[in-house]
Amino acid sequence: MVVILHWILFRPSNVCLHRHAVEEEMILDATCGGRMMWFQKDHEDVVYCDRRIEPNGTIPDRPNFNVLPDVVADFRGDLPFRDSEFDMVVFDPPQRANACLFTITAKKFGSLDPQGWEDDLHRGFVECFRVLRPGGFLIFKWSEVSFKVSDVLKLCPVDPMFGHTTGKNGGTKWICFRKNISKQQAPRRDHERTA
Questions:
Q1: d(Cα 118, Cα 178) in Å, to the nearest integer?
Q2: What is the mean pLDDT of the chain?
Q3: What is the pTM of this model?
Q4: CATH assignment at residue 92
Q5: How many domains does the chain have?
């Protein structure tokens, strides 16, 4: 509680904690963490969202690392935004299951519940598509440290458009989805995807 109060009192002036401050931004990072993938960590067109706060000094060997989202909200169905509000959504959810909340890995990346990870990710995909405008793009990043991307993609209600493998040993997948322009999102096809 003290950390949250301190963060609220001394946060940067561009940080907001309520939905009405989001008007001009066109991109949502639904799980921003420490914004490690971003070249511009405070881009004016992006709303950085995460369900947690980690202040500077949380990780001793990285004293400047922090998780200070613009909006504190849970990607699993609690995003305080209107339907179809964003042109692009970036979704890089926690990818490890059962990481102790006090480990460096959990502080940097978060952790999934090993019993409920499938439901959490499915709800996350649904919520990201809800706030994405028709014709908008969802960029999904996944590292195969606990679960294969082929299993994760089965949880998404739509088929991906394309993807790319990066990282050591090809374990990180970047996948692009596009929200259908029609009112109803096209149903997922029955065939299996491999990535």
A1: 21
A2: 81
A3: 0.79
A4: 3.40.50.150
A5: 1
